[in-house]
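Below is a complete specimen:
___
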Amino acid sequence: MRLDRFLWAKAGEVAALRRQERDGTLPAPLAGPRPDFLAALCRPPVQAPLAVIAEYKRASPSRGVICRHLTAGEVARQYAAAGAAALSVLSEERFFQGRLDYLAEAHAALADAGRPLPLLRKDFLFDPLQIRATAATPAAALLLIVGLTPDAGLLRQLRELAEHYGMQAIVEVFDADELHIARQSGARLIQVNARNLASLRVDCAACLDMARRFPPRDGECWIAASGMEHPDQLRAAAGVGYHAALVGTALMQDGQPGAALRGLLAGE
C-alpha cells in the first residue's frame, strides 16, 4: 500500500473543508484550555515502565476489523479507569473506520467520569484546514506524519498552527532521515512508528535501534508506536529512552480494552 492512498482517502474531506472555508461555515475552535498532552506523558507511571497512550481503534489496513461493538465513550471510560496516561482516537474513516465525532464522545465520557485525560486525534493530516477542523474538537494533540509531509517548513507551519489553537503536535517518523526532518521542524513530541506505512510491516527492533542511535534530546518526548503488545516490550522501550508507548490493536482485539491495559501496565 502506497502512502498516496492515504492522501487520496482524505481528498474528499479536504475539499469539503475548503468549501466550508469559502462559505464561512467552518466550525469555530473550542474555547478554553485543553489538557497538556506532553505533561501527561512526562508524569512517572505508578507501576509501568513508561506512560501508555491507549487507542480507540475499530479497524486497520493490516488487520481489517478489530472491534466495532464498543463505543468511543465506553472504551475511554475503561482506559481511564485502567491507568492510561492519554487516549488516542482514530478519526480516519476509509481504512480505520473512525469518525471525528468519536473525539467528542470520548471527551464527554471522560468528563462524566471525572477523568479529563488528554485526547490525541490520530489521522492523516497535512492541510492547515484539517488543523482548524481539529481545533473544533476536544483534542489536546494531533498527529503529523513526516512520510506524508516530508517538508520541515510545512511541518513547522502545521505544528505552530496547532499550538495557536492550544493543541500540541506529535510528529511521527520511521527512519533517521525522517527524524532529521522532524527535528528541523522543531518537534518536541516525536513518535517513532515501528510500522512502515508503505509496506505495513512492523519492525520493533528498528524502533528500539532508532533511540539507541539517535537518543532523545533534552526537551524531546519520544513515543514508541506499533507492535507494543507485551510488558517486556514496554520495558525495552523505556530502557533505550522512550517516554511513552502508543498501544491500540493489542488492547482492542479481544473486546476488553480496559482489562487488557490493566494487565499490560501490571506486567502480566
